[in-house]
Every structure is written in C-alpha cells, then in structure tokens.
Amino acid sequence: MDTGDTAWVLVSAALVLFMTPGLALFYGGMVRAKSVLNMMMMSFGALALVSVLWVLYGYSMAFGDDVGGGLLGDPLEFFGLSALMGTAGLEGSFAADELVFTVPSMAFVAFQAMFAILTVALISGAIADRARFGPWMVFAGVWATLVYFPVAHWVFAFDGAESETGGWIANDLLAIDFAGGTAVHINAGAAGLALALVLGKRRGFGRDPMRPHNLPLVMIGAGILWFGWFGFNAGSALAANGQAAEVFVTTLVATGAATLGWLATEKVRDGHATSLGAASGVVAGLVAITPAASAVTPVGAIAVGLVAGVLCALAVGLKYRLGYDDSLDVVGVHLVGGLWGTLAVGLLASPTATAGVESLFYGGSLDQLWRQAVGAGAVLVYSFVLTLLIGSAIAGTMRFRVTEEDEVTGIDSVVHAETGYDLDSLGGGGGRGAATLGAQTSAEARGVTVPTERSRA
Predict the structure, then answer these.
(1) What Cα–Cα distance (Å) separates residue 75 from each residue in 9, 58, 61, 337?
(2) CA–CA separation, 331 and 143 (whole Å)
C-alpha cells in the first residue's frame, strides 16, 4: 500500500462526490422555478440509493470475478464488502489486507461508487419538469442494477486488478476509456433519450418558453463540476503520479477550449455569447476529454475540447428538429460529447501520452478507431434498449409522469409539498414576485406564449 496514492484516491473520491450536488445546482438552475426542488431531489435521491446498492451488490457486479464472457461480475463475491475489510502490518499502521494496485480496495470501492451515483443522476436532466419522485427512485435502482453495474464491469474491470478476470471492453476489445466516456456519458445519454421518449414531451414543448429560472445557480453548478472533474479524471490514474498530472492538464485545457468553442458558436449563430452557453461549454468539454484524457497531448486536448464545444452547441438543437423532449440536453451534451471524445481517441491519441496508443492522425491506422466505435456503439445500444424496457415497465405500473394539471401547477408543490422560493414571506416586493410567477403559470395553463427565452436551438 502506498500512502500517497491512497490519499490522492480518497481526495479524488470526495471531489467526485461533490460533483453530484454540483449537478443538482446545475440542473436545478436550468429548470423553471416551480420544478427546482424536484430536479435537485432526483440527484440527491440517486446519491442516497446508489450508495446503498453499491455496497450491497453493485461493486461485486462491476468488479467481481467475471461470470459470463466479460459481461458481468459475480454479484455475491464482495456482497456487503466484508471480505475487503481488515488490516495488517505493524500495530497501528492499518495497512490494508486487500489492495487494488497500490491502494486499499475500500478506497477503490469509494472512488468507483461516486461514478455510479453521478451516472444515474445525469439521466434525470432528460425528464425534468414531469417525472414523479417515487417512480424515479424505482427507476434509479433498477437501472443501476441492470445497466450501470454490468456496463461498469465491461469498461472498468481490468484483469487482475480486483479479480482475476474482468470485462470484455477493457480486456478483449482493448478500447480506451480512461474515466468513463462510455460507461458514464454515453450510457447516461442513451438512457436519457430513451426515458424522454417514454415520458413524452412537456406541455408546451417547442411553443412556450421554458427559461432557466436561475442562471447564477447554473454557473455555480458548472464551476463545481469543473472542480470535481479533476478528481473524476486525474483520480482515475489511481496513483499520485505523472499520469495523474498529465490528465489534470488535458482536463483543464480541453474544458477551456470547449467553452470558447461553444461561445463562438453562439456568437456566430445568435449574435451573443451567454452565461448558459459558457456553463454548457464547460460540461461539454469535461465530457469529451473524459475518455481521452490519458491518450492525447495538451494540444490534442485543445482539439478535442474545441470540437466538442462546437458540436454540442449545435447538437442541443436536434431535439426541436427531431421532436424528442430532452429537457436539459443530456443527449446533446453527454451522448454527443461522449461519442466524440471516445472516437477522438482513435483519431488524436499520441504515442507520447501515457496511454501509449497510436491513432489515425499520429501515424497509426484505423485499428484503435474501430475498437472505440464498437465499444461506444455497444454501450449506446444496450443502455437505450434496456432503458426503454425499464422505463416502459415503470410507466405502465406506477404512473411515472405527473398529470397535466400537476405539471402546470408545479411539480414541487404537488409531489414534495414545498416550493423553492417562499416569495410570500418577503412582504410587498415578494407579492409582486409571486404575482409574476403566478401569471406565468396561468399563461402556460391557457397555452398562451409569453416572452421567449434565448433559444439554444
């Protein structure tokens, strides 16, 4: 056991945990005022539920010894994690008996738990404003069990790390996914698309304005995500070493380039660069560099980020053209950004980076590119199909979506008996604020179009 590596992994785990509240702020600011609490509760609900499932059997399914062609870990191998407890060495040293490389297995358990939590929470952005909390929690548990835990085994379980045999993408296909472009972002993006189709469009989608109600919250959330993402990516080195340092830099510069790319696209297309665009560009860059962070040079990372910013800024408008209601652009940012970042490994990976891969643009061939495409496609199809089945089953048995009347009234007050902003307690000024919100809700109920939002189409 290396104490420096252990310290870095534990700190990184805490950073990744911080990303889920950051996501709650990011998503919460993007919805209307009458939905902010429900939106944030879906992230916190995922945090609570997946934490428990991970300890009981999720870690075993993801990192237990393979029980079927690289598709699934043994769900009972580490059930409850008791087998991973224990210390040895000099009295008081607490050197762990069970290691993953140079860190205690329990540190690795904690670090990977945060990925599982965040992936489930990401999906919620696709169904904002219309999902009941109880069915969402059922969905979160079933989806984590049937989709995320197996896919994490495919992508993250390397032979000989925790168990003797691991997943097929990591060990047989040899696709590069350093920190979760497939397992996290493509997985969540495909699931978000499927679930948006199951629940249907929000009332007034494409007609009524659905403006973000609090852009400062959005930018605070994006800043927290950027901060936490250094643990997400650099922590995936599982050591305080040169690779972690390189990944830290590629994560920084790709995110900056993506933000510039998104803002430039907005300026050319709409005539102005926006705070919402800046926050969205940050997330797009973080998503895209995640699979490629150990494979590209800093200049290559700039290219990955810049393309991601432009591509995702254009992709978020697809929902209006294709007619699916992905409320907070999980598809446009996470699915599209994850696909680009995963394929970019096959195009821009440099043999001088720590992954040591030769890509098409660095003197290699199509070999790595097809591996990346197969891995990305397999996760996309598996997640989309399973999510359609899970979501349809829950919708058919538990009424996943709120009624139209409750959607107009506001999901916070109907489902949670709370409101995000108690404007009546503010006195005279609050009365005007409450009246404004009431007028907007009334207008939406009548189907009247009120002043339009800045469109991201």
Answers:
(1) 24, 7, 5, 31
(2) 17
Cα distance between residue 317 and residue 331, in whole Å: 10
Mean pLDDT per 10-residue section of the chain, whose length is 457 residues? 95 98 98 95 98 97 94 95 80 77 95 98 97 97 98 96 92 96 98 97 87 96 98 97 98 98 97 97 98 97 98 95 95 98 97 94 90 98 98 96 92 92 63 42 39 38
Domain 3-78+100-398, CATH among 1.10.560.10, 1.10.630.10, 3.10.310.50, 1.10.3430.10 = 1.10.3430.10
**395 within 8 A of 195, measured Cβ to Cβ:** no
pTM of the model: 0.91
Dihedral sign computed on CA atoms, order 135, 140, 145, 151: positive
Contact 131, 334 (CB under 8 A): no
**∠ Cα 337 340 342 (to 5°):** 105
Domain ranges of the chain: 3-78+100-398
